[in-house]
Amino acid sequence: MTDSTPEPQIVNIRDRQQQLIRQRRQRFRRSAWRTLVTLGFTIGLSWAVCQPEWQIRSSHQVTLTGNQQIDSRTLEHLMAIQFPTSLIRFKPQALIAKLKANAHLNEVVVSRKLFPPKVKVVVHELPPVAITACEGCVLVLNRDQSDSLTLGPANVWLLDRRGVVLPVDSYPKLKKAQQLPALTLSSYLQPVPQVTRQPKQANPVLSSAKWVTINPQKQKDWQQMYALIEASPVTIQHLRWADANQLVLQTQLGNIRLGPYSPKFKRQLQALDELRTLSKSVDPQQIVYIDLENPENPVLELRNSSQTQSKPEP
Predict the structure, then answer these.
(1) Which residues span the domain enclosing 170?
(2) Angle (nearest 5°) at CA 98 between 93 and 102
(3) CA dist 36 → 26, 29, 30 (Å)
(4) Phi and psi dihedrals of 288, rounded to 5?
(5) pTM metric for this prediction
(6) 104-162 tens-digit pLDDT
(7) Helices (H) and strands (E) in the chain, counts
(8) 16 Cβ partners below 8 Å, 6+ apart?
(9) In angstroms, what CA-CA distances link 191 with 91, 143, 148, 198, 294?
(10) 3-class secondary-structure state, position 16
């Protein structure tokens, strides 16, 4: 038999095959070049990262500005920058998040400079608004993470409106001038659970300290609570928060029992404001406590009385 395929068609098929082969070779060359360029860039970047010219090797290459009240040593401790560290691997956003979460700061700006290698940190402070006592306590931050830190030991701690806590020694100027916040609260810090306690320390001061942390739910409640306290015309001197089922406020009228913290807190403060004229009909010295768990029906416990009574009519 003879091949019946026309010769021009055979030529076209061969040309097409050769074209496909050339295209495959071109794609292979481009892919090889991309691989070589990527590999070269990676090797070059790795080499550059290891060069001392692109590293910060000491705290002298970190500039901290903007802190008027908070001690710089506290912020440097919270930054926890490991030396030496590459400026290319350095993560400004992680540092910003760490400082805002653990210090009284509402804004942090971090910038890097390659020549000469330097990191600049600019902070804007939040004022402390309350005091809490915790005798000989060490505060554990980020305890469930690999970059956990500790603050203290200290006996007096300061809170900002977000519920972030710093030892009073972090504010040397305020401490020396005795300009600490007037509002106090107790039992804000809670013991670290036994299963996650820190190992025994060689430092005898730390080994005998009480390890504490911040309860996330209490911190969230405090943020809402303080915003309402700040807006209220009633002066609150102290919050007792030892019992989750009984929040107690100390005011000029004495102790105010509110029950557990709840969305009723705003209405309870309004009811407390309405009771400010109570001293005209009842001697404040005779009031043991006022129960505002039901703000629509305040109940007074009086001294030398065998029973409670509802709020007297004005």
Answers:
(1) 128-231
(2) 150
(3) 15, 10, 10
(4) -80, -50
(5) 0.76
(6) 999 999 998 887 889 999 999 999 999 999 999 999 997 666 667 899 999 999 999 99
(7) 7, 17
(8) none
(9) 32, 12, 16, 11, 31
(10) helix
The letter for the amino acid at 288 is V
Q: Before 116, cis peptide (omega within 30)?
A: yes
As a whole number of Å, the CA-based R_g of the chain is: 33
Whether 202 shows a pLDDT value over 50: the answer reads no
- Has residue 306 been placed in a domain? yes
Provide the pLDDT for residue 197: 47
- Looking at the fold, whether 213 and 308 belong to one and the same domain comes out as no
Query: What pLDDT, in 10s, does the model give residues 205-248?
Result: 566 778 999 999 999 999 999 999 999 999 999 999 998 899 99
Residue 7 lies in a domain: yes
CATH code assigned at 64: 3.10.20.310
Structure tokens belonging to residue 161: 């409106």
